[in-house]
Amino acid sequence: MKRITCTGCSLLCDDIIIEENDERKIEQVIGACIRGKERLESIKSHNRILKPLFRENDDLKEVGWDEALEKAIQLIKESSNPILYGFSTTSCEAQAEGIRLAKAINGFIDSNSTICQGITLNKSKEVGVTMTTLTEIINKGDIILLWGFNPIESIPRLLNKILFSRGKFRMTGREIKTLIVIDPVKTASYNIMGPRDIPLLIKPESDLELIQALKKICKKEMDIPSEGIAGIDKMDLERLVANLVDSENISIFTGQGMLQQSEDGDPLKELLELIEILNNVNKKGRISVIMGGGHFNMTGFDQTALSLTGKNHSLQFKNDALIDTDDNIITKIENEDFDLSIIVGTDAISHLPSILASHLASKPLILLDNRKSSTYFVADVVLPTAITGVEAGGTAFRIDDVPIKLSKLIDPPNDLPSDEELLIKINKKIKGE
Ligand code: SF4
Question: Relative to the CA of 278, which of 100, 168, 340, 388 has its CA 20 to 30 Å away?
């Protein structure tokens, strides 16, 4: 029996037990959710990429490592404007090597965080942010607010840990923790609500209206109107405001819906401003925010990029130095401002809007990944790697920005390198070492 950390999502549960047989194969998994079990089972998936490939006459053909690396290096050397993208399902060590590669080849590098969790960090530069950790929520939390965020499907064990837990300092747990859900959709997270909880189904696209009204109500510049706000009636709004201004420890988890800007304003920026106001009017405790990203090390890219360059994502290098840019991966691809892409551990072709996917597919693409995806089928060179957190170790940052050590549990098939090892090799070849 061995205790391991699961890399199925950004919760990085470190309480999973596995049982191995004599051949170091995983026999039994205890404590993981379905998503976590799937992650461990992916080692024997029929989608697994086990050998390097490159495209010849429109077909991908299996080749040896020397040939595949030679082809990749040739494409990189022929490129004058490469982009690197992905990096949210690999270790911080691999992310650092990716940033070094981008620097060495005058490239632009970005992670999935640029269109997700990283946006919170950017807004916080303008208005500040109060952060928290899962441990603090477990021990001290009394209000957990999910705003446009449905962890039951994206981070399955999150509420088990933070809502159904007692913590160190209290004799009570779930009994005194109130769950508030604000969402235009009745998601699975509504199904676990109890009598003291507050389910608030708002009108679609009315988050901004509600946040702006709450800012005024909490500053006592406005009374709650008798007709309610954003589809929520007056009585529910009174309960919401009372909980926000009179609780000891409030954590607000935000989802993707909060990232959509409108002509009338920016919901995420206004939410951070609301949190600042609440921290001033609430005399008992503190209110914090956590952006609910799903990929297991999306936060890690921001941390790694910040520590190496002082900027958290969208890094453009020229002449061995970081230069200012307003671009992110979306604008780079939209404007076709690249001549080669290096994709690491993500299915960009499926995840990006179709027009961007077609731009990406129209230029040479090198893929480092462990499984076949839509991106695999348009790649020019495919370099298979070990699965991080199962077949390779390293460091990852949890959803609450806490660094967690990942261990190698089993050997990868065909002696596949980790993302970090492969990127080190590519960096050495680029430098002619
Ligand atoms: S919640 Fe996430 S980290 Fe925890 S077991 Fe499930 S997939 Fe793994």
Answer: 168
